[in-house]
Structures are given as structure tokens and as C-alpha cells.
Design goal:
heterodimer, A: alpha+beta, Thiol Ester Dehydrase, Chain A, 5-stranded antiparallel β-sheet, 4 helices, 26% helix, 29% strand, B: alpha+beta, 2 domains, 5 strands, 15% helix, elongated, plasmid (chain B), FAS1-like_DH_region (chain B), HotDog_dom_sf (chain B), FAS1-like dehydratase domain-containing protein (chain B)
Chain lengths: 142, 168
């Protein structure tokens, strides 16, 4: 199951990938990525860094965005570029939702059909935490 | 206490643009990939491309591939950390941090090439490309930009990342 270049329009919004991030999600990610950094694991360290407690990994928000892009684009597509600024900190128990909107369609020099997206990961208050952009090469009927 | 006027160190000046941290991963296993996908999709089944070889063979990839963000350098053998690596751990419980020792991941830009697959061995190298300093809400703040490049055992380009680290 895949999307096709011709079926995508500028302004389309892709389905969100949403997770409540508790210490469970952080611990699972730390366990595969070896991301046992004190500020992500220990409230005291998070407070020493000026936060209410331990806070979430930017890399996990990054993973959620990739998951959203893959779920939308399908296995025949290819994520070529992802850029994200970690502008706000993700606190414990935040509900994170990806947001991605198609802003441009183009054809690369190698003939690949490219979809350009403006992205962000929002918290439960609708506040953007991670603005950025993505480029996905998708199948074309041409 | 005297206020720091710069967080740029002589070590940074000396290392600017110089490739370092040459590393080679252990061979990627299907289990590594499956566990990564389970962790990041927790709460739902991860895509079959990451764990079902029979299905993955029917796709353009011809077999299981790793998620783009998969890190083959997690869980290398433990070793003594350098002072710099310890410093990059950031705040430590019960230990007061010096100005500049609080470090946040400010973001990254990745470009992706060849997919990573079970059996692949990834080589990595990094360099500090540039930096900038400015006053932020936490006072003097240093932004460093580090480029990392990955290739596989066939010499194919896998990924390039430019990562921003915020030191305050």
C-alpha cells in the first residue's frame, strides 16, 4: 500500500502520530538507543538543568515524526531528508502529536517524485516544539 | 564570580573542520532493528518492513531494512569515557554544573542514502564545522554544529547529519 505523487496536493495534511510520553516510553527508547542521559532519566538532574524534572529526548520526537511520514507514505517511498529544531522541551506525560503539511511537489534531477513537507511536533496544548521540514520521494504513475 | 565572556575553548578552535571519532559498528542484526521499531512504535505493531522478512522481500527493498533513525552505534563495548565525553553527559545529580556544561540537543538535519540492513557494518566520522555564541534566556549560550557521516561496508553513503548542540 503506497501513496502516489499524482494523488498528493499542496496543503494536504498527513495523519498524526500521537503518543503520551511517560517514563515508560523514554525508558524503552533509552534502552535501544543507549540514551541513558541523566536529564532524561532523573528528576533531580532535570531540575539542575532548570526544568521541572526529567525531560524527554529530542530523538524520540524525531522518531515519532519519521513514524508519521512512513505510515503515510508507505514502504515503497523513501524519506530523503528530515530537519527539526528542538525549540521547546517535552515534559513528562506530555501528549505529543506530529503535524506535517505538504508545501511543495517537485521532480529531482534523478527523476524522483518529491514531496516537501513543513513539520512540527505539538504538545497537548497545541504548542509546537520541533519545527522543521521533510522531503519524501514517493512512487509516481508517470 | 567572574562572568564567562566566551564558551569557545582552544580545543574547539583546534578541532574545527577536522574529522575525528572514527568508529565502526558491530554488524546490525535483525533483532536490533526489531527492538528499535518496537520501542519507537510502542503501543502498536511496528511496520512489517522492520521485522517480517517474507513481507519485506516483496517490497522494493528486497528484505528487512532499518528505520532511518536506527543507531547502529548504540551498545558498543563499554570503555573509559574521556573527560570531554563525561562533560557532554550534562547535568549530573548532586553535582553543580559549570557555566557551559548544561547541554541540550538543539536539532538536526539528516539526509538519508542507502538503507541499513541486517549484516551491515556502518563506519562513522564526525567533525565540528562551526559555532556561534549569543545571549539567550540562560545568559551566554554557545551553539555548536557537528557533522557526522555514515557509510556502509560497501562504501555506500548511508546518512549525513548536522547536529546543533546548545551549551549554556
Amino acid at each position: 500500500m503506497s501513496i502516489f505523487f499524482e494523488d498528493i496536493a499542496v496543503g494536504d495534511q498527513i495523519p498524526a502520530f500521537t503518543r503520551k510520553t511517560t517514563m515508560m516510553e523514554w525508558s524503552r527508547f533509552a534502552a535501544v538507543n543507549e540514551e541513558f542521559v541523566y536529564v532524561h532519566m532523573d528528576d533531580e538532574a532535570g531540575q539542575a538543568a532548570g526544568q521541572p524534572g526529567a525531560f524527554g529526548m529530542g530523538n524520540l520526537r524525531w522518531a515519532y515524526m519519521l513514524n508519521a511520514l512512513r505510515d503515510w507514505a508507505g514502504d515503497e517511498s523513501e524519506i530523503r531528508e528530515l530537519a527539526m529544531q528542538f525549540r521547546a522541551i517535552n515534559q513528562k506525560n506530555d501528549i505529543l502529536s506530529t503535524r506535517a503539511v505538504v508545501v511543495e511537489k517537485s521532480v529531482a534531477d534523478d527523476g524522483a517524485a518529491l514531496i516537501h513537507l513543513q513539520i512540527d511536533v505539538e504538545n497537548q496544548d497545541g504548542k509546537g516544539t520541533s519545527p522543521g521540514r521533510a522531503i519524501v520521494a514517493v512512487p509516481s504513475r508517470a | 564570580m567572574e562572568e564567562a565572556t566566551t564558551l569557545v575553548t582552544p580545543q574547539m578552535e583546534a578541532s574545527k573542520g577536522v574529522w575525528h571519532s572514527f568508529e565502526t559498528s558491530f554488524p546490525i542484526t535483525a533483532t536490533d532493528i526489531r527492538r528499535w521499531a518496537i520501542a519507537t512504535y510502542w503501543g502498536q505493531m511496528p511496520p512489517r518492513l522492520f521485522w517480517d522478512e517474507e513481507y519485506a522481500r516483496t517490497t522494493r527493498w528486497g528484505g528487512i531494512v532499518a528505520p532511518e533513525d536506527f543507531n547502529p552505534f548504540a551498545w558498543q563495548l563499554p570503555r573509559e569515557l574521556t573527560e570531554e565525553e563525561l562533560r557532554l553527559q550534562g547535568a549530573i545529580p548532586g553535582q553543580e554544573t559549570k557555566k557551559g556544561d548544561n547541554i541540550l540537543n538543539g536539532g538536526q538535519v539528516d539526509r538519508f542514502g542507502a538503507r541499513m540492513r541486517p549484516g551491515d557494518v556502518i563506519s562513522s566520522r564526525s567533525r565540528l564545522t562551526h559555532w556561534e555564541e549569543r545571549e539567550g534566556r540562560n545568559g551566554l549560550t554557545l551553539y555548536t554544529y557537528n557533522e557526522t557521516e555514515w557509510t556502509n561496508q560497501r562504501g555506500e553513503w548511508v546518512k549525513s547529519r548536522v547536529m546543533t548542540l546548545i551549551h549554556y
